[in-house]
Amino acid sequence: MLEAVYGAFAIDWHTTGRERNESLTGEALHLAEVLTQVLPDDPEAYGLAALIDLCTARAPARTDSAGNYIPLARQDRGRWDAELVARGHAHLRRAYSFATLGRYQLEAAIQAAEGAGADPVVLLDAHRALHRFAPTLGSATSLAAATARVHGPAAGLTILDAEIGDRRFQPAWAVRAHLCVLLGRSGRAYAAYTKAIDLSHDAAERRFLMQARDALGRR
């Protein structure tokens, strides 16, 4: 049940912001809260609610007034939904009170730490723990990005090569492109951006990636 709610949230994540109450994301937000009441003794129910609250809180800042995509590092945190952030933290504290670790609690903890601007080394340890606990393409991609922040882009690419390779996973290609840019590998970066663009279904994200790809030709 938790996985189904999380899946609904992930599928419709790109149609957030003003539309969230009419989207699968909005429904997932509601259902996650309901599950904390239906399953009051399940720490992962609180972990999932915390994760969805913290991610959804950032929806208003994910695009600017012109509809351009804004990465997390550049977002205006004053536009985050403070009520959702506080509720997410409360759910996370409740989940921790059970002293039983789970995937959604780990993911929520990472989101909370990212939002608080935690030390990259601390974040890397959290991503390693998540990938050991529940390895997925998403956790591998996040681990690669976190590794690159601490140990450099080449280390991040090594993880992408080992864990994902050439599979059709859009976030991995976007991260690969960025890391190739940092390494000065313009040709590989261009190809990776093209793949990420082809796999993206979100107009704002596609524009962002196309602008990054086009910038390679102006360097």
Walkthrough of the structure:
The chain has 219 residues and is mainly alpha-helical. It is built from eleven helices and no strands. α6 packs antiparallel against α7 (137-151).
Helix and strand topology:
Blueprint: H1 2-11, H2 24-38, H3 43-56, H4 82-96, H5 103-115, H6 120-133, H7 137-151, H8 153-163, H9 170-182, H10 186-199, H11 203-216
Q: How would you classify the quaternary structure? A: single chain
The string of secondary-structure elements, in order, is: HHHHHHHHHHH
Structural class: mainly alpha
Largest sheet: none
Rg is 17 Å
Distinct helical segment count: 11
**What is the 3D form?**
globular
Q: How many domains make up the 3D coordinates?
A: 2
Q: Report the helical percentage.
A: 55-70%
Q: How many strand segments?
A: 0
Distance between the termini: 49 Å
Query: For the residues shown, what is the average pLDDT?
Result: 91
Stretches where pLDDT is under 50 for at least 5 consecutive residues are: 15-21
The share of residues in extended strands comes to: under 5%
Short summary:
The chain is mainly α and 219 residues long. It has helices at residues 2-11, 24-38, 43-56, 82-96, 103-115, 120-133, 137-151, 153-163, 170-182, 186-199, 203-216. Helix 1 runs antiparallel to helix 2 (24-38), helix 5 (103-115) runs antiparallel to helix 6 (120-133) and helix 8 (153-163) packs antiparallel against helix 9 (170-182).
